[in-house]
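Take a look at the protein record below and tell me what you see:
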Amino acid sequence: MARKGKERRHLKRRELVRVACEEDCTFIRTLSGEVFSVFGEYSEIIPQWFANPDVITLVYVKNGLPVGFAMLYVLSGEILAIAVLPAFHRRGIGSALLDHIQLLAGQLGLRKLSLHTAKENDIARLFFQKAGFTVIGAQEDYYPKGQEALIISKCI
């Protein structure tokens, strides 16, 4: 019995957030295609962001495998994307990624974070509002498929 408890604790310690590396590009492209496809084609946009030296991409790793990512454009403090594999939703992974983004932004001297989220994406809007973000505006035809986006920000 004691052995199983030790194994579970060991597995919990195998969860971490790290800076993405080149080997993560396929995971990031695949996951973004899966979760963002409702808004349009992102197969070229995400790799461009990933390759941009002014974008920091973080990856959440669980048991040695990536399960989520977040991207921060450091010049403006814009969170470009946060995505988690659907099988890992509601386990605190998105919150952990957002916490790391906020910590990183503070270390970089940013005073404000902002992002866009689809107006009809209630789950994302509520997630960010719970984290202290507020809606400050809207932008029509923001997404490739033409959806309206809410502009959300938070002072840090």
